[in-house]
Amino acid sequence: MKAVYIEEQGGLEVLQYGERPDPTFGQDEVLVRIHSAALNRLDLNVRSGENRVRVAFPRIPGLDMAGEIVEVGVEAMERCNVGDRVVIDPVIRCGYCDFCVLGQDERCLNTLSMGTGLDGGYAEMARVPARNVYKIPDWLSFDEAASIPLAFKTAWRMLVSRAEIQFGEDVLVHAAGSGVGSAAIQIARLFGCRTFVTAGSDWKLEKAQEEWGADFGINYNETDFAEMVLALTEGEGVDVIIDNVGIDTWPGSFNSLRRLGRYVVCGVTSGYRGEIHLGQVFTRGLSIMGIGGWRNAEFATIMKLVEQKKLKGVVFQSFPLSDVQDAHALMESREFYGKIILNP
Fold this sequence. Notes:
- By secondary structure, this protein is an alpha/beta fold.
- The chain folds into two domains: 2-148 and 313-343, Medium-chain alcohol dehydrogenases, catalytic domain (Quinone Oxidoreductase, Chain A, domain 1), CATH 3.90.180.10; 152-290, Rossmann fold, CATH 3.40.50.720.
- It is built from eleven helices and 17 strands.
- Strand 14, helix 9 (278-284) and strand 15 (287-290) form a beta-alpha-beta unit.
């Protein structure tokens, strides 16, 4: 099969397009012909080795993918059929450790992820445990389906599971044009929240407001976002902040939280070391949290909402799989909104 793979970590040049062996699959697995694979920031780290991401070589990257089942293992036949259109949850749990048994599978002791510990979606074919495939309706394109898993799982985890968002709260979403940011805006709107978003380009803010319903857009290159948030909330601040940027936004985010506010972080692309005023944390009753992984049941809920057309994957641009270097270069430029797609 044709695939993109790496044999070392480094720049764009380490992404090789060529032939790889067709994957074999087990009795509880299915073989999926990949139609679309979406890029994630983690894909860049797998390629470059940044943030101490290490993988065995050769490795086919790609966490997010959607396609059609072409073969089914004997033990997977009750759940899956040849021809099923599916999207894949790339995080594979063991199902038998104490945490999995208790329904706390985000703490699974034997987790593997496609695209990091296992070969991923930058290929014509992928082997997948049957329990990790979700059927998609005929009206949902493969590109849109592939844009959903990691971004929406992360945004849902941050807003619903960790911050325990309440209807009508004020929510600040950083990096509105990112996959997580574009998903978080939709989820916040689903809960009837007033949404404040930041980005470094006016066109991204316009898209977030005009197409996705964000209430206020703030260009952090032109305006102090913390001052603007406080002005728009009459000095109160927001209830919840969703951050995948890190140190560049941390001081302003801390100052933008209202009493009993919750800050959730899922990425530190701008740096990870910052200062914190512990006195304000306990006097203002603030909660500072990370996502701590994902729970499989959360993705099942997300897909039900997608089927009900209450959540929608955000696709920016698609590339042939052979143009993977151009796709990675676009993601590194940050001149996109939503998800970048590869089509094998």
